[in-house]
Structures are given as structure tokens and as C-alpha cells.
Amino acid sequence: MIITPMAFGVVDRPLQNKVPAGDVELSGWAIDPHGVARVELLVDGGAIFSARYGLPYLGARNEPLALYFPAYPNTVNAGFTIELPAQTLARGAADVRTVVINSVGTRTEIDRRQLVTESR
Length: 120
What we know:
Elements: E1 8-13, E2 18-19, E3 24-31, E4 36-43, E5 47-50, E6 52-55, E7 79-84, E8 93-102, E9 107-117
Parallel strand pairs: 2-9
Antiparallel strand pairs: 1-3, 3-7, 4-5, 4-8, 6-7, 8-9
């Protein structure tokens, strides 16, 4: 049996799922053996937001991702960031899924979380 590796990554921010009211920044990193074409956030199963991908990324101790994933392409610029507009959390909470789309069109969900707005 041949096992094909798939995309994976981490959403580093926000650190907690309880966020202040207003725009919310999500950021992290994503890699795929075929190369990452883009990173998208799907909010409440409907709205899709495209993250800015291809940003420099270093690990928690300033180590390069290539140290851990030498066979993956573009580990130096695997970072992504996106700012979700405040209206996406207007109801007080939202289901947010982070999806990586690789260069051949395969979609892989790398993170799912319920973001909750703090009461004022």
C-alpha cells in the first residue's frame, strides 16, 4: 500500500478561542508535498476568506520548518495570515475551518475551532 502524505499545518493565533470583539487575526503555517496553492478559512460553513500565504515562518525557537520537514517544498515561506472582519463574529461565535488547497487542487482541513467573542 502506498501512503501519500497530505497537507498539514498549525494555526498559531489566536492563542485562545475566546477573542476580543472586533476584527480577529488568524495566522500560522501550512505545507504540502505538492506545494500549497492557497489557504482559505471557511466560516460557519458558508463565507470563504483567502489568507495571505507565502510569508516567512520560523518555529517557536526561531528554527526553520525545513529542519523538521526537509522533503516539503517552500518551508521557508509557509506562513499565512488573515484578518476576519468583525461582522463574521457578530452573533458572538463562529465555526472557523482552515483549509489548505495544494497545487493539484486537493483540499485538506488543518484546523477547526469555535471562536467566541468576549463580552464587553
